[in-house]
């Protein structure tokens, strides 16, 4: 049997009782470690499960999927995923491969940032399409996510922006060599995301924009963990906010708020803190 | 301390390890039982926790909030919520009241239908605004959710439709009496939801509609439980589909699909089953 188990967002105890029972009985347990990270590290998980984990980086999950599934027909193999297993398409792909091979599988759901983001008090039903904000490079600066945010705003909806993470990315120079070298991991902060958005506003200044530097934003860090932080201010102010370690998410708030949303958000105001 | 604990969607073991530890140590534990239901019943939960639960219906949560919070300053009190605690605004309201009273609180997240719906293989980032489809009465037949679905479709997005549930609704006749009488609980099925959508299509037939009876839909039942069922067919066909017991959800699929979405959805085709 092949198990895909969601770990939630915070610490080792955010796994479900069902998920933990499966982890305990499995022959092999992989930890997917490149689409997202838990606020705690892998060592803490190993200690809590009292067993070794195999760290699954992008190469292993995307090219080595057959190794992961190899003997899942006879043995019990689990892949642990931060958040919910269906948060990344690569996991859907794994299930399809298991099906092709006639391997039975089970999914154990858990919270993901898509619903945990409700902790800021905004109603989950008032969010539009979720967008991802990628790290810009000198030569690659896409801005299509800005139009989606603007479109949500026009439709009276909030936008959850998932911020890029780079884990075990090969350096450009090493791509041509036999021995890969990797860049240090990096995780986009709300301030970095806000700066890229401000740059887009600046680039588009000749157009008539629906949102600008005064649009209300919410910065969230380490949602679901004990050190969770939430702050609300405008986009310009957000570019100077420091919420500490990863992971961060950014919300661009819609133009109209429900009175309960207003009341709840007040506690997170930058001016108050 | 006041705890709001998500239970996930399926059976008692879908609670997190953290959540279970809190349930075990609390002085009083309420089970919120009107915005959603678990596939298993309250008795099964009590057996698993080895403790009594206080069933919290709408009256208790909305009018009796002070009773729930009464001594949460000194004692440990938990409210268990199906899915994630922030799925319903009434829970956000409870936290605000706790804050007003200076009562400390902690939220334990869990999966909700908003991310578990990924089990059908559609990418969660390709969903637009979530809508709720309410039970129509003879005199009250709102259809604003149809416009939201059509708007999502126009923006190349899928729509998750949450289907109405009626639990402990007083009968119209008893509203004027001292002694309340309640209607039997009812839970909207995918077929009932599809029929209401077809009716709206029929009513609007003079208009140029973006979606009609041929639009592709996905019906989901008891997501996250062992008896989970998923079926995909067009809206007309969905009005005849029977997915068994509650809870059901309906997805109206956007106009374009990613190849991986197409491949994953094939297994759920009505024609195949």
Automatic annotation (TrEMBL), chains A, B:
GO terms for molecular function: diphthine methyl ester synthase activity. Keywords: Methyltransferase, S-adenosyl-L-methionine, Transferase. Its EC number is 2.1.1.314. Transmembrane segments: none annotated. It catalyses: 2-[(3S)-amino-3-carboxypropyl]-L-histidyl-[translation elongation factor 2] + 4 S-adenosyl-L-methionine = diphthine methyl ester-[translation elongation factor 2] + 4 S-adenosyl-L-homocysteine + 3 H(+). SUPFAM superfamilies: Tetrapyrrole methylase (SSF53790). The keyword Aminoacyl-tRNA synthetase does not apply. Pathway: Protein modification; peptidyl-diphthamide biosynthesis. S-adenosyl-L-methionine binds at residues 9, 84, 87, 112-113, 163, 223, 248. Residues 1-238 form the Tetrapyrrole methylase domain. The keyword Transferase applies. It is an enzyme of class 2 (transferase). GO terms for biological process: methylation; protein histidyl modification to diphthamide. It comes from the Eukaryota. Belongs to the diphthine synthase family. S-adenosyl-L-methionine-dependent methyltransferase that catalyzes four methylations of the modified target histidine residue in translation elongation factor 2 (EF-2), to form an intermediate called diphthine methyl ester. The four successive methylation reactions represent the second step of diphthamide biosynthesis. PANTHER family: DIPHTHINE METHYL ESTER SYNTHASE, DIPHTHINE SYNTHASE. This is diphthine methyl ester synthase. It comes from Psylliodes chrysocephalus.
């Amino acid at each position: 049997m092949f198990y895909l188990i969601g770990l939630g967002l915070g610490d080792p105890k955010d796994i479900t009782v069902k998920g933990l029972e499966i982890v305990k009985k499995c022959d092999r347990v992989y930890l997917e470690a490149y689409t997202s990270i838990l606020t705690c590290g892998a060592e803490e998980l190993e200690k809590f499960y009292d067993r070794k984990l195999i760290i699954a980086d992008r190469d292993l999950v995307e090219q080595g999927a057959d190794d992961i599934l190899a003997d899942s027909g006879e043995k019990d193999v689990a892949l642990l995923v931060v958040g919910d297993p269906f948060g990344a398409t690569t996991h859907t792909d794994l299930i399809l491969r298991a099906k092709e091979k006639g391997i039975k599988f089970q999914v154990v759901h858990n919270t993901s940032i898509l619903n945990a983001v409700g902790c800021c008090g905004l109603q989950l039903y008032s969010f539009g399409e979720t967008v991802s904000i990628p790290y810009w490079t000198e030569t690659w600066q896409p801005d299509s996510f800005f139009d989606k945010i603007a479109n949500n705003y026009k439709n009276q909806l909030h936008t959850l922006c998932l911020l890029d993470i780079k884990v075990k990315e090969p350096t450009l120079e090493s791509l041509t060599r036999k021995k890969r070298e990797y860049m240090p991991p990096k995780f986009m902060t709300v301030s970095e995301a806000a700066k890229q958005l401000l740059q887009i506003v600046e680039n588009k200044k000749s157009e008539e924009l629906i949102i600008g530097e005064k649009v209300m934003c919410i910065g969230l860090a380490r949602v679901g963990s004990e050190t969770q932080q939430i702050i609300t201010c405008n986009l310009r102010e957000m570019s100077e906010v420091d919420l500490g370690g990863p992971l961060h998410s950014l919300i661009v708030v819609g133009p109209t708020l429900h009175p309960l949303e207003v009341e709840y958000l007040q506690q997170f105001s930058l001016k108050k803190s």
